[in-house]
Amino acid sequence: MDVHGRIREVLAETIREELAPEHQQLSTEDLIRALRQRGIIDDVMKELKFVTDMNEMGRTSAPKPSTHFVDREPPVLKKTNIDPTRRYLYLQVLGGKAFLEHLQEPEPLPGQICSTFTLCLHFRNQRFRSKPVPCACEPDFQDGFLLEIHKDSLGDGSKMVDATTMLSICDPVHMVLIKTDTFGETTLVASYFLEWRSVLAAENGITNVAVELLGVGTESKVSVGVLNIRLEMYPPLNKTLSSEITSTQFTLERQKTAEKERLFLVYAKQWWREYLQIRPTHNTRLVKIFAQDENGVNRPVCSYVRPLRAGRLLDTPRQAARFLSVLGHERAPVIGGGGGKQEQWCTLLAFLCRNKGDCEDHANLLCSLLLGFGLEAFVCVGTKAKGVPHTWVMTCGSDGTITFWESLTGHRYIHRPINPDDPPLAEQPKPLYPYRTIGCIFNHEKFFGNCQPSDAVEVCVFDLHDESKWKPMSREAIKSVCAPGATSSVPPFPPLCASTVDAAVTSNEMEVQLRILVSEHRKDLGLSTVWDDQLSYLLSQALAAYELERTTGVSAGNEEFQDAVRRAVPDGHTFKGFPIHFVHRNARRVFATCLRSPFCEEIICCRGDQVRLAVRVRVFAYPESACAVWIMFACKYRSVL
């Protein structure tokens, strides 16, 4: 544990012994030799293990349910042994300063809940999260992250990478700073791409950088604060590069990227001119070629989508759609009125870390997951009712079936076009989807502008090979700027993370809190509360069936539930039940929402003879700690007429 203390003792001793009256200079070698003689260096090398906290979200101790045991012990820090044959980058965050928005914040009292900052990192398919620290002008980040340079590439993973090879790895370390307020609401504070390769030219392989974080969206030119970061290569490099070499490499990469982007811009302008010449009315269609990310950088829309495999976290495309529908929906914040929608398409890491985003973020991720599942998927840009701009996802079946996927709700709609040339009495399909117009569709390698006479979705024909209906962009042009690694301005996609929420524990905690809230509310009305545990348990069947139906579109198991309720409610008694669905885990907010529904309020405030109340909570955990929370309130009482 106390390596630093022991090293200090030995050094003090060595200096006393070695420094004779003539004050000779001690070199680093002398000090290292002294440590080696006393066996401390060997001890340190043996003990050198980097700690990665497996349970970042500390669990609160929970009432133990009978079927599911929770360790009350604090989470064990899992030790990662360093493999001395691999190359690592050790990134330490040593505090922040000048977070001026929090200049006036008082020191939090012990035990008081306060707003916190969390730093999320992504580097070459590895994701990390710092411990939350209280928001302050100088937040006390003290975290170390061990990043493997070659994580998944098998061929290179086995050999030790030298400095020259690492110089060609242009993946940045993407850092996202999230603020969580006292109610658990998250906001995106900053998103930064750290160029780590400066460490390759640093003396002794260690470099300290002060990173100035800029705000997001409308504040992308405003400084948020400064993080002190220390980078270190492990094992140390035998030969460091000269700073000229690294700066030349960076300049070359920038020039190459700028040239590719310039050529694409020239091509896009030419494409747009041609598109407008087809019909002058095309300039009102929602054809989006570029979109701004959270840092205010304009990027081609195709770079926001990429085939993404969810590993073992999601099994089916419909499950992916369900996962997207339980991630929160939030418009990009705008300061001041004016009703204008602030446009901000987030990078995937920023969207996942915040656990919520706008419809574009949802559609981009759903399209990426569906492409990963091997479907031909596109993001559609168009409008909903009243001309509100919207994005959704479309898949083209091999038999020509067109399916729309609404990423905010998980609903799927089959598209059957109306033929405007049909005789007036012919039966026309009535569209069930909420979409009105469609301007363009795109995925990671294709982009089509809608050039049919009308851009109304209901008459739209999705024959993408017919250039008189859909004007395509050159696949080569898209590939030049949107393919992974094509330009340094397109960030790599992070992998999805498994949920850290324990569904059974969270369900129990919420249920206990809701019981207390109901009992207190009834007490205020002068009513006593008797809970029926058996009835509460029966409600689980219904909640599981609701979630299954949301995921698969198939309802099952309803007959058994109805039969169980009939048997549990004696003759002459009335049963009332009210199911409701949430995507957050705040029991007070749930209760307040339920009381606003007259049906639910009737159950919670039920008066009568032999009133028995029941409540059941069922939390379904999805990747990225997203949750679908189903709650059912019920009561049974003797009907007295």
Automatic annotation (TrEMBL):
Family: Belongs to the CEP76 family.
Domain CEP76 C2 per the UniProt entry, residue ranges: 81-238
Record protein name field: Centrosomal protein of 76 kDa
Function: Centrosomal protein involved in regulation of centriole duplication. Required to limit centriole duplication to once per cell cycle by preventing centriole reduplication.
Highest taxon in the source lineage: Eukaryota
Pfam families assigned to the protein according to its UniProt record, in alphabetical order: CEP76-C2, CEP76_C, CEP76_N, CEPT76_peptidase
Species, as recorded: Serinus canaria
Keyword Membrane: no
